Amino acid sequence: MQNIIIAILAIIIAPLLGGIIAGIDRKLTAKLQGRYGPPILQPFYDLLKLFAKQKMDVNGVQVFCAWMYLIAAISALFLFALKSDLLMIFFVLTIGSVFLTIGASATPSPYSQIGAQRELIQMLTYEPLLIVVFVSIYFVTGTFKINAILNYPRPIFLSLPLIYLVLGFALTIKLRKSPFDISTSHHAHQEIVKGILTDYSGPHLALIELGHWYEIILVLGICSLFWSTNIFGLIILLAITYFAEIFVDNLVSRATWRWMLRYVWGVGISLVLFNIAFLYANKFVN
After folding, report:
1. Which of these, 54, 118, 190, 251, could form a disulfide with 183 (CB 3.0-4.6 Å)?
2. Shortest CA distance to 76 belongs to which of 203, 211, 270, 190?
């Protein structure tokens, strides 16, 4: 019963934290670009404005997919708060991404169609890496259960530092930051306008933005598993990770999907092999 109450509180608090993080993101981005930037609470103002707008939908499939994306994001975070299985959380999160792609594909707009194709390529890029990250966590802790991972006596980051960098690739794609913001972006430099979000507006665009906030908290929660033994170390790790994401977003330009596949798979798999080889060597020595 206590775990269910904590999970419900997590569902309530997550969008508040997600909106604040999005506001801090926009503020820091503005500072890095020499601008004053919007107030930190601006994402909440934008969300309320979207909910107040008139509903204008291309078709019913689009509306259904927006709701399913939000429900999948909430469900994945709920499972995480219940300290469930990492693989189950991964599959639920994938369902949300699939529905987001279906919603974009259901409209005749060429911008949405291209955005949907690129979103599928992004999923093909980061989902194998997430599986590898979870398998590496299992290799160290012997379990996929979050409850058991949290009880591991030492930070798993010390055993999997390169795997954490691989998780950073997935985080960059999920946050839709350069150089991997090929399907949609919060910035104005896309040649496909808003990509998969082009035909969404008003309340249903707000649902997708809300789901994105839940995903931000979920992915940062997965990152927190790498240093769950100490709250101060955890906060420092997450702060450095997110600032690095913002810094890279402002430092590099958007990549092509071919470069993304080659780079993320090539570098990611290389880092995984090096880290796994290090673990095997360490066990052999001991």
Report:
1. 118
2. 211
By C-alpha distance, which of 226, 246, 212 is closest to 154?
226
My answer on whether omega of the bond before 179 falls inside 30° of 0, hence cis, is: yes
Q: Encoding tokens for residue 173?
A: 């794609």
CA distances from 1 to 4, 65, 77, 85 (A): 5, 31, 17, 18
Tokens describing residue 157: 């980051």
Element containing residue 70 per DSSP (H, E):
helix 60-81
Coil, strand or helix at 12: helix
Tally of CB atoms within 10 A around 117: 18
- What is the reported pTM? 0.92
Over range 3-11, report the average pLDDT. 88
Burial of 239 (0-12, 13-18, 19+ CB in 10 A): exposed
